[in-house]
Specification:
Protein name: Mannosyl-3-phosphoglycerate phosphatase protein
Distance between the termini: 14 Å
Pfam families: Hydrolase_3, S6PP
Structural class: alpha/beta
Radius of gyration: 18 Å
GO molecular function: magnesium ion binding; mannosyl-3-phosphoglycerate phosphatase activity
Helix content: 25-40%
InterPro entries: HAD-like_sf, HAD-SF-IIB-MPGP, HAD-SF_hydro_IIB, HAD_sf, SPP-like_dom
Number of strands: 12
Number of helices: 9
EC number: 3.1.3.70
CATH topology of the largest domain: Rossmann fold
Shape: globular
CATH class of the largest domain: Alpha Beta
Length: 271
């Protein structure tokens, strides 16, 4: 195992990545310090495996990761057996949630029955995703390549959203409200992904200190499952959740807040 027993689990959008330009540069120095301390950084995101693959190459990140809000977990082959892994190491992927086809069929049925107003990724082409997210064409195509979730641009009322969530849950599936999208997924969330990965780290290396960072509703389960959780500030400076118990507030928005949290943990010898 690493010199440190800590493992960092992080959301991407508006957390490690800037909400507006998707840059991680404000967290670059903190990432370098974690690498020097051999602290794994495991991405846990609503993004797809195709999107994460490109970012992992950019970050030189060869650690396990979870996609589509915990719907699937990917582990580089040989990682927990001590093999040297990088961003290009072949992956073993485990589906924790539900297949995308099941999710898409449900939201279409609910829209037809109740008249809910939303636009799902299944309704969108690449140009629509570009308009909704600001991603470039290549990145937008990767965002559409989904396996275990169906994101929706919600265009109806909060009351309608409550009704929709109840109907999805009654069907045995789940809804998570993220920074940009409402995500329909199976009964697996980011907290389940953290717990699944923690078990494998601990089986291989002994107890870990799980640190989790996020900014929105779909990060709640992950922060609750961690030993130390951090809310980073949202673009308007507010926080999604309170600082209480093992969950703290990072001083800063997005990747700047992410860096502040990591710097504080290292300064206080917590990791």
């Amino acid at each position: 195992m690493a010199r440190s027993s800590a493992v960092v689990f992080t959301d991407l959008d508006a957390t490690l990545l800037d909400h507006h330009d998707y840059s991680w540069q404000a967290a670059g120095e903190a990432l370098a310090v974690l690498a020097a301390h051999e602290v794994p950084v495991c991405i846990v995101t609503s993004k797809t495996a195709a999107e994460v693959a490109a970012l992992r190459c950019e970050l030189a990140n060869g650690h396990p990761f979870a996609t589509e809000n915990g719907g699937a977990v990917a582990v580089p082959q040989g990682y927990f057996e001590g093999a040297h892994c990088d961003a290009n190491t072949p992956l073993d992927v485990t589906t924790l949630g539900a297949e995308r086809e099941i999710l898409r069929a449900l939201v279409e049925r609910l829209r037809a029955k109740h008249g809910f107003r939303f636009t799902g990724f299944g309704d969108m082409g690449v140009d629509d995703v570009i308009e909704a997210t600001g991603l470039d064409r290549e990145a937008a195509a990767k965002a559409l390549d989904r396996a275990a979730s169906e994101p929706l641009l919600w265009q109806d009322s909060e009351e309608a959203l409550d009704t929709f969530c109840g109907a999805v849950e009654a069907a045995g599936l789940a809804v998570r409200v993220g920074g940009r999208f409402v995500h329909v997924l199976g009964q697996a969330d980011k907290g389940d992904a953290l717990t699944w990965l923690r078990a494998r780290y601990e089986r291989a290396h002994g107890p870990i200190l799980a640190v989790a960072l996020g900014d929105s509703g779909n990060d709640v389960d992950m922060l609750e499952a961690a030993d130390i959780g951090y809310w980073v500030a949202r673009p308007d400076g507010s926080y999604h959740g309170s600082a209480m118990g093992h969950i703290r507030h990072a001083r800063g928005i997005g990747p700047a807040g992410w860096a502040e949290a990591i710097t504080a943990l290292i300064a206080h010898h917590e990791i």
